[in-house]
UniProtKB/TrEMBL annotation:
GO terms for biological process: pyrimidine nucleobase catabolic process. Coiled coil: none annotated. This is Flavin reductase. It comes from Oceaniradius stylonematis. Keywords: Oxidoreductase. It comes from the Bacteria. The keyword Oxidoreductase applies. Signal peptide: none annotated. SMART domains: Flavin_Reduct. Residues 15-157 form the Flavin reductase like domain. GO terms for molecular function: FMN binding; riboflavin reductase (NADPH) activity.
């Protein structure tokens, strides 16, 4: 069996082959909104509506979520890559974006979708915590933008040359197994 460091590197390398969407979790803070980029977003349940994401232990955003009990999940468009990089902690110029008050928390202007959540539960999980939120409100543009994707350790976008494809009826594939 390989040593722990090599196993961790292999684990990370192999998981980079899994393409995900990208979201920014936002929390209303005393000095303005705080946020974190996540790609571990998962819908958990329709009744009640629950979602989850994972946050690194010691995350400032996760701490604010536990203090306030409310947060938003903002699914990003390809045009919001700089926002994602900023909230992932990458150095560089602060991108231009706007947060708006939304129920008990904040929403990111221009996001493909925003879900407002009340903190349902936090599960410790190794060097991260699994944060479960109960969706209390949601919003999104009538026509979605091209989604921002993460693959192979970098950002990508779907090559939609024009109109986005027609949405698929969720009932046709929602948790059939």
């Amino acid at each position: 069996m390989a040593d722990k460091a090599n196993m961790s590197l292999t684990f990370r390398t192999l998981f980079r082959r899994f393409t995900t969407g990208v979201a920014v979790v936002g929390v209303a803070g005393g000095d303005g909104p705080v946020g974190a980029t996540v790609n571990s977003l998962t819908a958990v349940s329709l009744d009640p509506m629950l979602l989850l994401f994972c946050a690194r232990n010691g995350s400032r955003t996760a701490g604010h979520i536990q203090e306030t009990g409310a947060f938003s999940v903002n699914i990003l468009t390809a045009e919001q890559e700089a926002v994602s990089r900023h909230y992932a902690g990458e150095p560089g110029d602060k991108p231009d974006w706007t947060w708006h008050a939304f129920d008990e928390t904040v929403r990111l202007e221009g996001a493909n979708a925003t879900f407002v959540c009340r903190l349902e539960r936090v599960h410790p999980a190794g060097d991260h915590a699994i944060i479960v939120g109960r969706v209390t409100d949601m919003a999104g543009p009538e026509t979605p933008g091209t989604p921002l994707l993460y693959h192979g350790g970098g950002y990508a976008a779907l090559p939609w040359p024009g109109e986005a494809p027609e949405p698929v009826e969720p009932v046709s594939f929602w948790w059939t197994g």
